[in-house]
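Before a colleague's protein record goes any further, I have to sign it off. What it holds is a sequence and that sequence's fold in token form. My question to you is simply how this chain folds and whether the tokens agree. Thanks in advance; the entry in question is below:
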Amino acid sequence: MHKISPYISISGITTPDEVKLVTNSFKEAGYGINSYHQPTIGILICEKSLADRETQAGLRYPALRDLEYILMQSHNKINFSLALTFRDSGSLFDTTKKLFNSFPIGILCKRIQFNVVWPHYLPNHRRQLQKIKERYHVMDILLRFGKEAMETGENTNLNSITNHILNYKDVVSGIVIDPSGGKGKLFDLEKAHTLKKNLNHSCRYINFCLAGGLKPSNVKNVLHDFIHSTAEEDFSIDALSGIRSQPHGKKATEYGEDVLDISKTKEFLNNTSEILY
């Protein structure tokens, strides 16, 4: 298993025009494809997206009919990651195959993130991921651990999370710690530090990504504190809700009723670049 490079991800991108805007924002902040922290765009996909390919499942999800064209906007200047959320872990392989058979995704995108429920280590679940890895061997697989994993609190639980992650060490290239689920809740820095330390001892090649609650106003302090506590910059970050705003004249009544705010994105990346190169 190779170790993937640290990355900075802007997630929830839904159109080719947004790809171009975000790519330019990375460039203006000093990030390029050869940077230590590589610029990345996250594309969200859910079961509803797969059921209806012609329309968006929400403002954070692209219509799948547009996915190939979105991915074609890379021009070797940025990486893409697909983030898939499915309830039935037993169908991960079939669902992934169906998605990949529709587009040349293996060429245009080489990273896929599965959002899993905690605790969720089942032999069948691991076998599903193993089948995906064997079929799409160039694809890096990431696992997201949400609030169920991070909110139960004690070091013994963090040891349990570490052991849980190690069950997947032969099939995953990285983990994403995200207690927010796209709702803007900041992760617990102390717990994240302890988990990073545990993984450094047990499986250092697994990429470690922090997500949840990152926004222009706090990203410098969060990164400074995390680097100070870990004494390293070998980790990734992912931003979603903190770089989005409500559509003009509308008030959100449900989760995800927001759109990319390119001004916030530029500010976020500029602030990040003062800490991470």
DSSP finds eleven helices and ten strands in the chain. Strands lie at 7-11, 38-46, 79-85, 111-116, 140-145, 174-177, 207-211, 236-239, 244-245, 259-260.
